[in-house]
Amino acid sequence: MELIPAVARALEELRRQRPLIHHITNFVTMTDCANATLAIGASPTMTNAVEEVAEMAAAARALVLNLGTLQAWTLEAMLAAGKSAAAHGVPIVFDPVGAGGTTFRTQAALRLLDELPMAVIRGNASEITCLAAHKSGQDFGVDSRLGPADPALASSLASHLGTTVAITGAVDVLSDGCQTAEIRNGCPLLTYVTGTGCMTTSLIASFAAVADPFTAAAGGILAMGIGGELALAGEGKNGPGTFHARLFDAFYQLNDAILQKYGKVVVHRE
Amino acid sequence: MELIPAVARALEELRRQRPLIHHITNFVTMTDCANATLAIGASPTMTNAVEEVAEMAAAARALVLNLGTLQAWTLEAMLAAGKSAAAHGVPIVFDPVGAGGTTFRTQAALRLLDELPMAVIRGNASEITCLAAHKSGQDFGVDSRLGPADPALASSLASHLGTTVAITGAVDVLSDGCQTAEIRNGCPLLTYVTGTGCMTTSLIASFAAVADPFTAAAGGILAMGIGGELALAGEGKNGPGTFHARLFDAFYQLNDAILQKYGKVVVHRE
Amino acid sequence: MELIPAVARALEELRRQRPLIHHITNFVTMTDCANATLAIGASPTMTNAVEEVAEMAAAARALVLNLGTLQAWTLEAMLAAGKSAAAHGVPIVFDPVGAGGTTFRTQAALRLLDELPMAVIRGNASEITCLAAHKSGQDFGVDSRLGPADPALASSLASHLGTTVAITGAVDVLSDGCQTAEIRNGCPLLTYVTGTGCMTTSLIASFAAVADPFTAAAGGILAMGIGGELALAGEGKNGPGTFHARLFDAFYQLNDAILQKYGKVVVHRE
């Protein structure tokens, strides 16, 4: 199926099912991630006690692991939840916030990658490349500040990481190693609201409950990019506070017609 | 006194006194709970260190204990704060988020119930019934997905739990075992914003600083339900982001005339 | 240079540089502090694990230490980050939330003051006076509920604390012991939104990355006060929820012309 119709079908399905999306995530964007998950049509839980995360992850339809405000104890909770998710066939969507930024954070990301099967990894070019470099011993020479990742790099990183990668930036690129897509939605005001990356990960996980990882990654990225455009077209142009509120309105309003009208996707199949 | 005039009088009183409401609550909805408390006219503190919660609870006019994102250390803080509140006559409003959802959470809820005198317990039908079933050894056969609790059930649960219960859902029901009320305010968009349950608990606690538990529970539920209706009637109809912001506007604007005009309350006295 | 032109120049510079502002802050207002930092034009990180804060603080351009929701472990993280910041010449902006409110909190604030060089301390009159009284052994006889601090008191507190102090309230006063300013911007609705004090601290830190402590304190206070006035002049008058969103719009829109038009500053030089 074409990518946009596949995303539209997944969106309809997730609204019908309202799947439970378990997050172990950071304290900065936790509320926004819960609200993004609700607005797109799924059901969030942010339970993070090591005593109960395995039980909760087993009952969920997707699991988000997000490294922002990482602590030693949240890492343990992520490992416990991730192993339970893996054992129960629950897809894991990983957001390696700040990988490469500090030693603690890079090592935690690599440990999670080693011990857990990730369905999708979403990050900026610098974070994803850091992980792929450590896994493969290869230097990809990419810096997120230098511009967007290109499709060939995304495909290479996906192959080295053995999963679907979603690299978000001025242009978003995603790849599962076999198929690669560029998505050119979004707007600069998205960089003036904290958590738009984290929320994209939560949206991807919402789609991952009902679709394959590549479609899910495209769905989450399209929801955020088109959401930003719709928010900016309305009252959101007033500034980042109003824009932020209008983003959730846009996730809620997203549908097949809007995806078809606004989605700017190019797919490359190898 | 009739229930709505009693709520209106309590609202006026809480705005005059700006009572300090101490919360030990979850990390997802903490900010929204603080803002709801401020918007209705009270003063929040979210202090949660075990080293200081007893001192803070003694200085507060009501204490919220909310189990979302429960941790072993937050449970200890809740016990310390709750014992101090009890010793100083500070009413405790308990929100057993997710009771019945995991073993850890159910046991924590039951331990708090055993050790602390709760003025009000607010939850959905599934959470409240889970607690009453464990306390009484009786199976109430209720599932929150099956629809709202009815007044007879609310009264029975209040008796079994020995406190005022507020069961929120499509219809809200509250009872102290002697008097029972149904409140039919609210709108479906409330279920697309995280923390509307937690905020209702904070609103109840704000009222509990100046009113009896039954009036307080009615006040918090009416504030949220009417708030949702007012938010929806304005810009909030645009979607859950704008609606969320407008909810706080509505709490702030709530007054006697609005309570009289919009409140849909039926009281049963046994 | 006059104070408002100095603030305007610093604002332009911070937007050009987008400096990294490291926060170890509370869980209630963390998201709002990150969004305020972004909206004014800087770049926030809220990393708080003791394993990585020294590394992060060394890479930052300013460090915020905020005592709200203090824990023993966040205190350790603050000390580690603060020592690293001091060693690398990174200015520290301290927000002693609730100092004087509980013993735990007062002692933590005093320990941080003893061990770390603070560039700016921002709090209400009660918090700042509590710290100065403990440091100097002198009773200043001030209670934040009695009204705003006056310039003479601010100057005295700055001298006793050996740093720039920013005392916010109905009127804001700042002093570095040599120069003192009163700022009369703002509006009462700011007291109905949680975290406006914490956000002011984050805004001060954003300015402190590119300006001296006195100019930075003035910049943060002006941004919040004028922001409140602009938010109130627009849709924000609807209530604290809409007002809250509009605050971020106002930080984003703040510029030289707005500072000149709205800023109400009186500077006293000794």
Topology readout:
The structure is a homotrimer of 270-residue chains.
Chain A lengths: L2 H15 L2 E5 L5 H11 L2 E3 L7 H7 L2 E5 L5 H16 L4 E4 L7 H13 L4 E4 L1 H12 L14 H11 L2 E4 L4 E4 L3 E5 L12 H13 L4 H21 L6 H14 L2 H7 L2 E5 L1
Parallel strand pairs in A: 1-2, 1-3, 3-4, 4-5, 5-6
Antiparallel strand pairs in A: 6-7, 7-8, 8-9
Helix pairs in contact in A: 1-9, 2-8, 2-10, 3-4, 6-7, 8-9, 9-10
Order of helices and strands of chain A: HEHEHEHEHEHHEEEHHHHE
Report the oligomer: homotrimer
Q: What gross morphology of chain A would you assign?
A: globular
Uncertain stretches of 5 or more adjacent residues of chain A = none
For the record, give the distance between the C-alpha atoms at the N and C termini of chain A, rounded to a whole number.
16 Å
CATH-derived topology of chain A: UDP-N-acetylmuramoyl-L-alanine:D-glutamate ligase
Mean pLDDT of chain A: 94
Strand order of the largest sheet of chain A: 2-1-3-4-5-6-7-8-9
Q: What's the CATH superfamily of chain A, by name?
A: Ribokinase
CATH architecture of chain A: 3-Layer(aba) Sandwich
Strand content of chain A: 5-15%
- Domain unit count of chain A: 1
Fraction of residues in H or I helices of chain A: 40-55%
Binding site for substrate (chains A, B, C): 46, 195
Pathway (chains A, B, C): Cofactor biosynthesis; thiamine diphosphate biosynthesis; 4-methyl-5-(2-phosphoethyl)-thiazole from 5-(2-hydroxyethyl)-4-methylthiazole: step 1/1
Catalytic activity (chains A, B, C): 5-(2-hydroxyethyl)-4-methylthiazole + ATP = 4-methyl-5-(2-phosphooxyethyl)-thiazole + ADP + H(+)
Binding site for ATP (chains A, B, C): 122, 168
